[in-house]
TrEMBL record:
Membrane topology: Multi-pass membrane protein
The entry's keywords: ATP-binding, Cell membrane, Fatty acid metabolism, Ligase, Lipid metabolism, Lipid transport, Membrane, Nucleotide-binding, Peroxisome, Transmembrane, Transmembrane helix, Transport
Gene source species: Frieseomelitta varia
Family stated for the protein in its record: Belongs to the ATP-dependent AMP-binding enzyme family.
The protein's name: Very long-chain fatty acid transport protein
Chief place where the protein resides: membrane
Amino acid sequence: MDVTLLLLALGVIAAMFGVVATRFGFPGFNKIAQVALALALLPVICRFHRKLYIICKILPRDLKFLYRAISAEIEVKGQRRNNMTVVKIFKKRVDRYPNKTCFFFEDQVWTYSDINKYSNQIARVFQEAGYVKGDAVALMMPNRPEYVAIWLGLGKIGVVTALINTNLRLQSLIHCLRIAEVKSIIYTEEYTSALDDIKDSIQGIGRYKVCFKSQICESGVCDLNKLLSEASINEPVVKDEPNYRDKLLYIYTSGTTGLPKVAILPNSRYLLVVMPFNLVGLRSSDILYNPNPLYHTAGGMLGVGFAILKGIPTVLRTKFSVSAYWTDCIKYNCTAAQYIGEMCRYLLNAPPKPEDNAHRLRLMFGNGMRPQIWSEFVKRFNIKRVSEFYGSSEGNANIANLDGRTGAIGFVPLIVPRVFHPLAIIRVNNQTYEPIRGSNGLCIRAETNEPGMFIGLIKEGNALREFNGYLDKEESQKKIIQDVFVKGDKAFLTGDILVEDEYGYIYFKDRVGDTFRWKGENVATAEVEGVISNIAGKRDATVYGVQVPGMEGRAGMAAIVDPDSLLDFKTLAEGLEKALPAYARPIFLRIVKELEITGTFKLKKMNLQKEGFDPSKIQDKMYFLSGNKEYVEITPELYQEIISGRRKF
Ligand SMILES: *[C@@H]1O[C@H](CO)[C@@H](O)[C@H](O)[C@H]1NC(C)=O
């Protein structure tokens, strides 16, 4: 039998004996009994002290989370019960404070009423043109208040807006317009030539042009400025009103491989921004800074959703700018800001200036702040709270870091038993990323500190737990697994490898597809990129695996931006040796003038990967990690040695 339990039992018996003895007039026994009980409890405390300590430590966090999550959940239930839509809630805001600022943009101030009037005009123009609920219209426009007013207006008559990444051209632009089956596209003058280039492939798709600078409209193009100026600013009369479940937006997910996919955003999903609103702890007195592109979930849903649904005045900006960042925050008195991806590193990279902490930002929330720069960032810019938020446009697995734990993307509350969690980390095969199943055919939860795939359990009918999927049914199926923890249940595979520590904090390890195997080990590219960038003076770098004839797996290669050839290779090699295990250090380097980045500041690496390291094909200078010690330039001779297997590494 368990010694601890035996001692505990004996202690309890002794204590009871002591109580009885005292009752019958032998008070001396009481002392002895107390001591016995204390001694018996000692091993129990010793054994579980770690657990007890952890519980005490996380209790305030978990209680705060439960309170916020439950409030959000109640709000979400109410939205469903009342068949709410984004435009209905927005209308409530307009009625409540028509003259409150909704958006700041450059030197313009747009009140709730201004946005509403513009959106009414949009609704009327498209209603007049015969558009009905369920039709789709594409929108290609730089960030500005009209952008939001346009999709809100279309939302009033149930027309779905497909938000087009403004960087897209040619084949990918055609693809995006086609898969969403849009009837027309609304665009601004900067994209005229992009559309002219694909004219023959998009016949049948109507063109509505909005001009902000010039006033010229080609023949065959509808002049939206003119149509709007003739339309009434009053609420449109809508017979077939959109419902809670009806589609509002299409957002394209920027996959690292292949062409973009369309993620469906019904009203029910957009309304979920109340969840992060509660979780990250925004206040109704906040002013939000959002320089992110409005065609992505981050900037378009979280970044403007708080303005539309919660009445938070929001600053929009055509483009994120390092030099304007803090001066903007000061100018508009911002108290909260949204970040994405690499933005924080760009800011940290800029030389210090007085504006760095002359602003009033108290909260920054977003996605992708690297753990390596987190502390430095918070200190230099004096940000009280960084709230990293994890989620995807289509998925149902969302978590947030609400106590500012450095590096964590969120946590799961430990005081709630795991079977009630809608999220889990499961074991997966580390090459195929297929879930590993036990003898009962079900998935297995990863242990503490064991990396695994993050999944969200699907529950139909609950907006927080359902998976809205892609327009492409097959693509949707690929993301769903069955029989997860009980027969017949379903879960959404996020594709992200996360790890949970003993406090329940969750850390990002890797995104599937962003790893390669070398010397029998998995190398996480995001991690290596973080390290390189830190050693190499915050330069941009992208890491990928390249094939070497005769070698298994892929050798690590890093493309580093160094236009002025100032990179110190010796420091880099030494730093990498310190920071990374041998298998993770890049074997090859490629020095580039710039790196192509996607709209979310993710670096594109597919092409680099294909090009490899052949000096006869590539103009850029390339280097090889010789003897695991120093980088030497790759000459045609060295290249031959490497690919013929004469050079060992
Ligand atoms: C910012 O605050 C200052 C002082 O509180 C005020 O004078 C100014 O008008 C505010 N700016 C904006 C854009 O609201």
